[in-house]
Specification:
Number of domains of chain B: 1
Shape of chain B: elongated
CATH class of the domain at 1-78 and 201-242 in chain A: Alpha Beta
Strand content of chain B: under 5%
Number of strands of chain B: 0
Number of strands of chain A: 10
Radius of gyration of chain B: 19 Å
Largest interface: A-B, 23 and 17 residues
Oligomer: heterodimer
Largest sheet of chain A: 6 strands, mixed
CATH architecture of chain B: Orthogonal Bundle
Helix content of chain A: 25-40%
Largest sheet of chain B: none
Order of helices and strands of chain B: HHHHHHHH
CATH class of chain B: Mainly Alpha
Order of helices and strands of chain A: EEEHEEHEHHHHHEHEHEEHHH
Shape of chain A: globular
Structural class of chain A: alpha/beta
Distance between the termini of chain B: 47 Å
CATH topology of the domain at 1-78 and 201-242 in chain A: Rossmann fold
CATH superfamily of the domain at 1-78 and 201-242 in chain A: P-loop containing nucleotide triphosphate hydrolases
Structural class of chain B: mainly alpha
Number of helices of chain A: 12
Number of helices of chain B: 8
CATH topology of chain B: MetI-like fold
Distance between the termini of chain A: 41 Å
């Protein structure tokens, strides 16, 4: 097992408040770890430390065998895909220009960028000849999210960070996107760390689930073992699934 | 009054306004970028600029007269006063435009590995451009009006007719200044609004 990301005793304080206290765990290559927790549990804060959008107040974050604090943040960020709700797309740029952003920053040849953009749009299920020239405001929520994922994948980074990527979508679109993303991630062999407050999503997408509570790592377990966790917070989250998920075949 | 004189004073008016707006933009736009990076400085500067804006224009021209180097009767004093007036709308709109860029857009620009300079030139300024252009439009239209008063301190322009007309109690002479100034303001407003629309995404 090769850890791609490691959190070592990570702490974060802001405004006299302890946001994160002593977070220790690692993300192995080719797995998807779901960071699950309520609002304010510190999960987004932890995510942003991997690509240095935030710096830890204590402890260290490692990526690919190096301390992120020792790496140039600009170069580091171009090696890590980042996806947020609604994609955070540039409204003044077309879909193709949005997806080609990091390759463009990296100075790829125009022809190579175009080919890459077309491949990625295909991969996320958007026909390039229809979508390449559109602007974000001409897209639905689900389409924006697909473009956001394609953009994050553009420079072929080994790691994807996703912050509540599907939270703004309607349930049907969300389910489709989750399935599509799971398949895409597996096919491309990417490692992913994603933040969610939705236990269902954590169970569908996560190889492992890391549960945060008030800035502490309450438990980390493989998705199939999560239900057996003794953690009170884990049980609270599991309870939100309701009967329909507890006995999926009860009716048959 | 001969048509020829109306033409000359109109050109002079355009020239006064153009210099004032161009210089004000050159000062205000970079200053605004700086202000978006310093919250403390921003409050102070916008506060001071607001105060300048509230000084009645005739009084401001009066205040500037005795100041060495920049004061005195003539075009220079007039232009300096017009620049001071044009600064605020451009400054404020540029600040508002840049700070108004969606947080998610800014954050994803940073997360994609753009440098601060790239974020400014490729994301913030293009997205703020319609707001900045609106500030320039407001500054231009107000300056066209204020510039007529500049004639009081020897600034020239269409205000020359207005003040002459007042002195002679001659409505036609006043109108010879007021009508072209009003047409100029309306035209500038329309043209700049068209430019603004062209640059909105």
């Amino acid at each position: 097992m090769n850890p791609l990301v490691e959190f070592r005793a990570v702490q974060y304080r802001a405004g006299g408040r302890e946001i994160l206290r002593g977070i220790d765990f690692s993300v192995e290559e080719n797995e998807t770890v779901a960071l699950l927790g309520r609002s304010g549990s510190g999960k987004t804060t932890l995510l942003k430390m991997v690509n240095r959008l935030l710096e830890p107040s204590g402890g260290e974050v490692w990526f690919g065998g190096q301390r992120v604090g020792d790496r140039d943040p600009i170069q580091l960020r171009r090696r890590i895909g980042y996806v947020i709700q609604e994609g955070g797309l540039f409204p003044h740029r077309t879909v193709a220009q949005n997806v080609g952003l990091v390759p463009e920053l990296e100075g790829w040849a125009e022809e190579k960028i175009r080919a890459r953009v077309n491949d990625l749009l295909e991969a996320v299920g958007l026909a390039p000849d229809v979508y390449a020239g559109r602007y974000p405001k001409q897209l639905s929520g689900g389409e924006k999210q697909r473009v956001g994922i394609a953009r994050a994948l553009a420079a072929d980074p080994p790691l994807l960070l996703l912050d509540e990527p599907f939270a703004a979508l309607d349930p049907v679109t969300r389910f489709g996107m989750q399935q599509h993303f799971a398949r895409l991630r597996r096919d491309l062999g990417k490692t992913a760390l994603f933040v969610t407050h939705d236990i269902r999503e954590a169970l569908i997408l996560g190889t492992r689930i890391a549960l945060l509570r008030d800035g502490r790592l309450e438990t980390i377990a493989r998705a199939e073992e999560f239900a057996r966790s003794a953690s009170e917070e884990a049980q609270t989250f599991l309870a939100t699934l309701g009967d329909s998920m507890d006995q999926p075949h009860a009716a048959t | 009054m001969p048509l020829h004189e109306i033409f000359v004073l109109t050109l002079e008016h355009v020239w006064l306004v153009a210099i004032a707006v161009v210089v004000a933009t050159a000062i205000a736009a970079p200053a605004a970028v700086l202000l978006t990076r310093h919250a403390q400085l921003r409050r102070w500067t916008l506060g001071v600029a607001n105060v300048v804006q509230t000084i009645p224009s005739l009084a401001l021209f009066g205040f500037l007269l005795p100041i060495p180097f920049i004061g005195g009767v003539g075009k220079r004093t007039a232009i300096i006063a017009l620049i001071l007036y044009a600064l605020l709308p451009i400054l404020r709109n540029t600040v508002v435009g840049i700070l108004g860029v969606d947080r998610d857009v800014r954050e994803s620009a940073l997360a994609m590995g753009m440098t601060e300079g790239q974020i400014l030139t490729q994301v913030e300024l293009p997205l703020a451009l319609p707001t900045i252009l609106a500030g320039i439009r407001i500054a231009t239209v107000t300056t066209i009006g204020t510039a007529t008063i500049a004639a009081a301190i020897g600034g020239g322009g269409l205000g020359t007719f207005v003040f002459r007309g007042i002195a002679m109690a001659d409505t036609n002479t006043i109108l010879a200044g007021a009508v072209p100034a009003a047409l100029m303001a309306i035209t500038a407003d329309e043209v700049l609004e068209w430019v603004e629309r062209r640059f909105s995404w």
